[in-house]
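User: Here's a chain of 871 residues. Predict its fold as tokens.
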Amino acid sequence: MFRFLPVILLLSATIAVLPAFSQISNLREKKIAATGTVRLDSMSIVPNTFSIAGFDTSYFSVDMINAVLHWKKILPVDSVEIQYRTFSFRLNAVAKRFIYDSIINNFIPAAGANAYNKSVNPLFNFGNLTYNGSFGRSLSFGNTQDAVFNSQFDLQLNGMLGDSIMLSAAITDNNIPVQPDGTTEQLNDFDKILLQFKKRNWEVDLGDIDLRQTQSYFLNFYTRLQGISYQQKINIDSNIVNRSLVSGAISKGKFAENILQVQEGNQGPYKLQGSNNELYFIVLAGTEKVFIDGVQMQRGQDQDYVINYNTAEITFTPKDLITKDSRVQVDFEYADQNYLNSLLFVNNETDFGKKFVLNFSAYSNVDAKNSPISQPLSTDQMQFLANLGDSVQNAFYPYAPIDSFSASEIMYKKIDTVYNGIHDSIFVYSTSPDSAFYNLQFVSVGIGKGNYIPSYNLANGNVYQWVAPIGGVPQGSYEAATFLVAPKKHQVMSLGGTYFLDSRTTIKAEAAASNYDQNTFSTIGKENDEGYATRFDIDHKNTWKTSSKIFTLDINAGDEYESENFQPVERIHPIEFLRDWGLDLTASTTVNQELPTFSVSLSNNKNDSLQYLFAGYLRSDGYRGYRNIIQHSQTFDGWHLADEFNITDMTLPGNKGYYLRPTIDLSKTLSSFHNFTVGADYAVEHNEIRNIAADTVSALSFAFETFTAYIRSNQAKPDHWSFNFFTRSDQLPGGKNLVQTDHSNNYNFQTELLKNPHQQFRLNLTYRQLYVTDTFLTTQKPDNSLLGRAEYITNVLNGFIVGNSLYEIGAGQQQKTDFTYVQVPAGQGQYTWIDYNNDGIAQLNEFVLALFSRPGNIHSCLYSDKYLCEG
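Assistant: Prediction complete.
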């Protein structure tokens, strides 16, 4: 009954608001993006009414007249909640009776006014539109290649069509499409077409569009599309405003989540995997979100990480040292061309006199199962998927095509064998023309799930050999098969409302339903496709003034419920939500879960705050967690104190435990000594789960404590530096108690010398010592890590000579490669084959580099999913 309480309250609020339309409030509360420049409203903002919870004015600036916000700093979140009040008009609004373009033809122009246009004959004539860009054609040829015709086209348009329609267009085309480089914070897209038409209350976007939705809690997502988007704003009457958005497109890719298994002192690269465990795909540029220890990182050579979109690899910069303790998670979209994929999104928001806001959203993403693109399916393969049900992770279809014998290919023969009294047929590598009829492709199916393992020899390619099962359990990890991707269907619908009880109290309610079919070929297991979720929230804010301060009291209470089969488009909880409740990051979320919350906070305009938060997490698998948090922050006499006490009590089937996380940070700004800042930080995480019957600590338990001391110069000056030292001690389960296994000392020094515009220098240096105290509980080896980056920039003769020197030191890894030689037409290769043993079979050691001729073999690299550490 309580699960449907938010829906009942939502309907009650809808009925209650109808007689209250005449009560118009100028209070605005909304969620905005935490980057770039954001337009807040069409009206001017009342001064001293704008606020962002948790962030002072050092993070942003607001143009009150034009209602535009500019971010000054990078925030650790992607969106924030804001509150402000508006005037009923725009202070600098333009008043005019006519638009010049609409009456220009009512006058007789002066003679010769446009005479100069008669001699102009541009390549493109766009009338009154302003345009710029480039257009190029090139021809390349050589003695080892045919003639190649290259084209490049780049065009930007901006202007008015007629007297009221504004046109903006960006058209870029290259006959060799490439992904933008993932080493900078800002990206430039290639092969992109975008047409935008605007007229007063409507807007149409065509081509490559980005769809970002934050109005709904359960239907919150960002994706890149190719299609059409239509937006419209209608004033139904003086108090009711309706906003609609309809988007239909062909989706460019699919969403995936990765938890990277990082290594001590290894900066990468680390390989990403698709939602179907794919290893080779292209990441859609700009869609990735990278988190370390729950904090979102920034892309760029001088930031936290760089990414190769074409190989789906992430490398971390010297700004952040990767250790065995780093928790790295990545969300991204990648190109998926297995099926024609269509996406439809509809959103409608109605504002009833600024008293009640009703929001409806619907999302549908469907693979066309009868329109495969890169994966043509036979009738047998379709039936195989139909019989598979929702176990799509096991869609390894046995595939053994018969082929004619070739000495340059890896061929297999089929033989009969008997093991443990079982008769079976297996494949064996063979170079015999009378029996080697099979050209096989082996795929990794997981350790202990396959019957073949790699066999390392001199053959010109990868060879696999069969190993007999032991006790009916496979001993290999490969099979002669191909992985079939099943078509999917994902639909989500959301209905929510916000009721402004008065200027200080807001009530929100939302209900959502989802339909997620993992395999539309199959009719098996459809009973778990549909799920639902509800959320209710009430918030009350009260502000009062004293002689020297402005205080704000915020009281919030809410409840959220999700059924086990509810599937949102993207994650709706924080990235480390499960870990915050003492669970493993990979714990299953396909359970019924409820989250009641209550919080009360008191803050002032001096950034002093005190908050108490209670939350519960109730799961249908028997987990019960209750969390209490007290947070305090205060600044006094140059001192800044920030502390938090966080404890979670939890019970699981047969287990009981607690998760304790206190932190304290104390710093002092020495105003009498060049505004230097000194400080210290102490934090503990102790997650202890005990088995009630055996009185032992479970494998999920852990504990560590860190102590940090730091000193830094005035960071506002162009020349500044900082030094910090921190030590960490870790404990792991050892029988009845947690036992210390290792500890580390970490040193970091950073400096930037930017005062001289002609000579600038940046340095970031980190040194880490890891000591292992218990080699029985951990396989980690002691290690010393050095990571650094030094950059020198020079600019002399007013920019006539510009130089840049960069030096980095650290450890990483390189992808393991296997080599093979592929026969190509004569004149295009660099290697020749010499059959040293006269067996007619090509071996790797029989290919040599040709000195004078251009033979018909090239050196080809086969990249594996294994990486070798270096440095």
